[in-house]
């Protein structure tokens, strides 16, 4: 198996950031990644974590989420997949559904652009927030 060689060298710091990010499915923000990484690298700074996340995202090693909300979120899963964001608490989950290539074809039909990709973010209320809603009604 020949894994594609990343454009940037994975330093120990970067490797640890990547490992910590890959452990979770919560699409953490840079400061959440920082909190996880700090347990293994107590002297690392938030700025370093942030720069490394940005660099790895630019090189396709990780994904930077194109989602609404004020803070950028990161994802170690680089395969194309859709996300759903809770409108109430802001959590972001993966959607277990197929990426729709037909959407790309439809976009190509309506644009002179060469279509390279698309991002879909669904919004809704997560299970926990639905329960909270129900409790408020009672
Ligand atoms: Zn929620
Ligand atoms: Zn994801």
Which features does this protein show?
138 residues; alpha+beta; three-stranded mixed beta sheet; 11% strand; binds zinc ion
Q: TL;DR?
A:
With 138 residues, the protein is an alpha+beta fold. The protein is built from 5 helices and 5 strands, in the order αααββββαβα.
Report on the structure:
Helices cover 39% and strands 11% of the residues. The strands form two sheets. The chain has a three-stranded mixed beta sheet with strand order 4-3-5, with no helix packed on it. It has a two-stranded antiparallel sheet with strand order 1-2. It starts with 11 loop residues before the first helix and ends with a helix. The chain is built from five helices and five strands. The model has no long low-confidence stretch (mean pLDDT 89). The structure holds zinc ion (2 copies). One zinc ion is lined by residues 86, 88-89, 91, 126, 128-129.
Furnish the topology, listing elements before pairings:
Blueprint: H1 12-23, H2 30-38, H3 46-58, E1 63-64, E2 74-75, E3 83-86, E4 92-94, H4 101-109, E5 121-124, H5 127-137
Parallel strand pairs: 3-5
Antiparallel strand pairs: 1-2, 3-4
Helix pairs in contact: 1-2, 1-3, 2-3
Bound molecules: zinc ion (2 copies).
Whole-Å distance between the termini? 57 Å
Order of helices and strands: HHHEEEEHEH
Hetero groups:
zinc ion
Determine the number of helices (DSSP H or I, runs of at least 4 residues). 5
Question: Beta-strand level of the residues, as a percent range?
Answer: 5-15%
* Biggest sheet: strand arrangement: 4-3-5
- Could you say which overall geometry the principal axes of the C-alpha atoms support? flat
Mean pLDDT: 89
**Biggest sheet statistics:** 3 strands, mixed
Number of strands: 5
Q: Could you say which structural class the secondary elements and strand pairing correspond to? A: alpha+beta
Low-confidence stretches: none
Percentage of residues in helical conformation: 25-40%
């Amino acid at each position: 198996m020949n894994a594609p060689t990343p454009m940037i060298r994975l330093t120990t710091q970067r490797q640890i950031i990547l490992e910590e990010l890959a452990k979770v499915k919560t699409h953490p923000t840079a400061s959440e990644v920082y909190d996880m990484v700090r347990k293994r690298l107590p002297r690392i700074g938030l700025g370093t974590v942030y720069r490394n996340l940005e660099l790895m995202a630019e090189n396709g090693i990780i994904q930077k989420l194109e989602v609404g909300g004020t803070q950028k979120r990161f994802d170690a899963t680089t395969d194309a997949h859709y996300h759903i964001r809770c409108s109430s608490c802001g959590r972001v989950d993966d959607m277990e559904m197929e990426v729709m290539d037909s959407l790309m074809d439809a976009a190509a039909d309506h644009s002179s652009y060469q279509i390279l990709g698309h991002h879909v973010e669904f919004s809704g209320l997560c299970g926990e927030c639905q329960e909270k809603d129900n409790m408020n009604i009672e």
